[in-house]
Every structure is written in structure tokens, then in C-alpha cells.
């Protein structure tokens, strides 16, 4: 709970700075890259989290990795490191993305089907959801053969479960 509160507070401040500099998307991309690296590269994660390594060394590494494009944006990442909040990067990025989506009327939709959607099916689903919600749709599709058929769509905290697995489970219960 505390990390998500930290993420909210930092993401709001970072988003305000990003809007002021007209670099909302660029800062998101940098923060997201840092989060992905932190989550997927154990050596990097251990290096950043190691209290025996001075912050100056950590800053040098972050500058080498992320400082090529825009040093002003890099300062945001260095600030997060200075404040000892780099371990909250995933919460900061997630909250930043929520603000970005809300301000740009984008809806994050997660869909699960038994097989990959064709480009035509994907486009139809996006268009239908966009018409229903009046928002731009950011669709993430997962494949899960265990649902047997149909699909599951998650929009925020709402779930539309049209899977055959759910139908069979309901049938067994009755």
C-alpha cells in the first residue's frame, strides 16, 4: 500500500513537470524503459538496490543508459534515485500511465482469447469498444487455451467473461 501511495505522489509531480515541458510521452518512455530494465535484469536491479554502492556510481550508470536522448528527462530518474525511491519505479510508472490515459481519454483493455486475434478481429474489437466508451482503446491481448472458447475482457475493474470455461463451471454448479 505504501509503495502505491509513493507511486501516486511521485507520478503526479513527474506528470506535472512533463506537461510543463510538453514531454509527457518521452518521459513515460524513459520511465517505462527504466522499469523494464529494473524488472528484467537482475544484475541491474541488484546494482541499483545495493546500499554499498554510492549513488554517484549509480547515477553514472543511469546516465550512460538513459542520458543519450534528453538530459533534462534523465534528471527525473536521478531524482527518484536520490530520494531512494528507485525500488518504487513500477508503481511510479503505473500511476503515471493512469494519469496519461485519463488525461488523453485512453482506456486500457485486457482481453483473453483461446487464440491470437487476426488484425481484422482486433480492429473490430477496438472500434466496438471505442464506440461504446467514447474513448481511445489501448488493447492488450493474451492467449489462454484453458478458457476453451469465447473470451474475457477486462476494462478497469469490470470483467466481461464470455468464456466457455465459465459457462461449463456455471453449468456444473446448477
Write a concise keyword list for the protein shown above.
single chain; ATPase_OSCP/dsu; ATP_synth_OSCP/delta_N_sf; 8 helices; membrane; alpha+beta; ATPase_OSCP/d_CS; Peroxidase, domain 1; 4 strands; hydrogen ion transport; 174 residues; 4-stranded mixed β-sheet
For the biggest β-sheet, the strand order reads 2-1-3-4
The biggest beta sheet is recorded as: 4 strands, mixed
Q: What amount of the residues lies in strands?
A: 5-15%
CATH topology of the largest domain: Peroxidase, domain 1
- On the 0-100 scale, what is the average pLDDT? 90
Structural classification: alpha+beta
Unreliable runs: none
CATH superfamily of the largest domain: N-terminal domain of the delta subunit of the F1F0-ATP synthase
Tell me, what's the shape? Answer: elongated
Radius of gyration: 20 Å
Order of helices and strands: HHHHHHEHEEEH
Subcellular location: Cell membrane; Membrane
Protein name: ATP synthase subunit delta
Membrane topology: Peripheral membrane protein
GO molecular function, one term: proton-transporting ATP synthase activity, rotational mechanism
Give the secondary structure arrangement, pairings included.
Elements: H1 2-21, H2 24-40, H3 42-49, H4 55-66, H5 71-82, H6 89-103, E1 106-113, H7 119-133, E2 136-143, E3 151-155, E4 158-161, H8 164-173
Helix pairs in contact: 1-2, 1-6, 2-3, 2-5, 2-6, 4-5
TL;DR?
One of its GO terms (molecular function) is proton-transporting ATP synthase activity, rotational mechanism. Helix content is 63%, strand content 14%.
